[in-house]
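As described in the Methods, two query proteins were run sequentially through the folding procedure within a single session, without resetting any intermediate state between them. The first query and its resulting structure tokens are shown here.
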Amino acid sequence: MTNVLAINGSARMEKGYTHKVLTAFLEGMKEAKATVETVFAKRLKIRPCLGEFQCWFEKVGECIQRDDMGSLLPKLREADILILAIPVYLPLPGEMQNFLNRLMPIVEPVLEFHEGRTRAKFHDDVKISKIVLVSVGGWWEKDNLATVVRIVEDVARDANVEFSGAVLRPHAFLMDEHKDKAEEVLSAVKSAGFQLVKEGKISPETFEIISQPLIAEEELRARYNKMYLRAKESSS
């Protein structure tokens, strides 16, 4: 059975659009008979990495800090698929940055040079074979999510595991207004989860349906600017 661990980095947790998209993705995985668990980064006390590298060169695989990362590391070692669910906040929430930096104890510093970069790998007792990103944003284009995509893709490559792609939903807040398209989007998200577990990959067509525009870019830009001007006038 496939074990899936999802880290939801949204500050809004269950109320956010990240959670809505992630929930559909996990439903598809459960239909494919995967075991899934979601952890909310905001509910964890994870301090920033100290940068001492003791987990690499003194107490190998152990972190010297005592916080909630200690209970999360065993779950990470047992997961087959790791999902990082990250809303875009120029570029990502601080809790997720701390989480990513604190992955060092499960990374083995046996260095190789491939794909033009120095890379390491997960320790042998870490079962993660795939990392996938689920990300939402408020602006129109999915390229606005590109920085987070690049970060997660690099994490996967630096750990020598497969980056299984990015489930991207730009201008996610408009799903409440465009319910027919939202239903199509969430159905495709669910299919993506099912495909990843059953077939080992998500089809390009499914990715495109998930990221499809809900309104024209000019309309969204005008709406944002109008909201800002109204707020500026009321506060002056």
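Immediately afterward, the second query was submitted; its sequence and tokens are:
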Amino acid sequence: MIDLTGIISISGQPGLYKIVAQSKNGIIVEGLTDKKRVNVYASTKVSTLSDISMFTTGDDKPIEEIMTAVFEKEKGGAAAIDGKSDDKAVANYFGEILPEYDKERVYVSNMRKLFSWYNALQTTGNLKEKGTEKEGEEKTKAIKTEDKAKAAKKTVSKDSGKAKTSVGVKKTTGVRKTGTA
């Protein structure tokens, strides 16, 4: 399944964004196509792609599963339908990918948006499967824990007779400060 964590859509703004950091008043995002960083305030409507699903005749289908079906159909390439195709062509193509979609509640505009998002993710190289990324993260975590263990072995604690104090704090032995002079 395709991993869409950290990819968001901002209402009123075109394109997709990747979450970079958290700021005092919201989040800092980076555009997938133009790589520009923007501060998004907490009052702005933001949707993460991993939380979006589409209506079907049974249970709702997460958009990750639908994009995985498009990925498998196109063998990793761009979707055959773009945002400017005919309505019937878009509906037929979407019907091939997700035949059990609810024809009354899923509009052609929703299908167009899905295909434009898929093509944007595909052209920027952000279509990654969940399993391959987790394996890489586990390897880097294992390497980091090994490095920490080696660093802990190298560190030798020296115990001197002096009392330990915080950095920048003067130790005042036997003097009581009352605040009056």
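The longest strand covers residues 17-22. We note this only descriptively and draw no conclusion about the first query from it.
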